[in-house]
């Protein structure tokens, strides 16, 4: 009987260990920034953003040069103009400066919106591919190694598998 209890206890212990090991979550990691940078859609998005940025930059430089010329002209002619004309010119310069600032803010906002609009489908595609690969390989959790500080990363790196899934 004592021998039977020992065997029963050993069996229960083994079953408990197997259950504990089986209950542990499978965790993988991936550098999503590296994945997104490798996607062909990202190169196209960067190109579009650079083109738009250069367009705004050129326009701002043009406005700045025009503003600078006007300020220099008004400074040069200030001695030959009446006080009223100089006051009106100062208001004109201030108005022009304000419109340049407003244009600069609008350009910055437009660039941010365009970046968001271009990156959203790319990040969503990457997310879906990561989920597909992780589920296919039985992972319950996937950590983004580009966003968090990982002290140890012995888990499976899904980057190569996700890239293959996307055809990259």
UniProtKB/TrEMBL annotation:
InterPro entries: Chaperone_Skp, Skp_dom_sf. GO terms for biological process: protein stabilization. Keywords: Signal. SUPFAM superfamilies: OmpH-like. Residues 1-23 form the signal peptide. GO terms for molecular function: unfolded protein binding. It comes from the Bacteria. GO terms for cellular component: cytosol. Belongs to the Skp family. This is OmpH family outer membrane protein.
């Amino acid at each position: 009987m004592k021998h039977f209890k020992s065997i029963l206890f050993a069996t229960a212990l083994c079953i408990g260990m197997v259950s504990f090991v089986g209950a542990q979550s499978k965790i993988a990691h991936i550098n999503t920034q590296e994945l997104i940078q490798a996607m062909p859609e990202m190169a196209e998005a960067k190109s579009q953003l650079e083109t738009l940025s250069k367009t705004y930059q050129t326009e701002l430089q043009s406005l700045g040069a025009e503003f600078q010329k006007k300020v220099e002209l008004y400074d040069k002619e200030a001695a030959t103009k009446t006080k009223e004309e100089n006051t009106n010119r100062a208001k004109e310069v201030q108005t022009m400066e304000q419109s340049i600032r407003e244009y600069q803010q609008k350009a910055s906002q437009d660039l941010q919106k365009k970046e968001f609009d271009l990156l959203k489908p790319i990040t969503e595609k990457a997310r879906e591919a990561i989920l597909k690969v992780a589920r296919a390989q039985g992972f319950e959790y996937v950590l983004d190694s580009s966003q968090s500080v990982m002290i140890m990363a012995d888990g499976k790196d899904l980057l190569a598998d996700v890239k293959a899934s996307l055809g990259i």
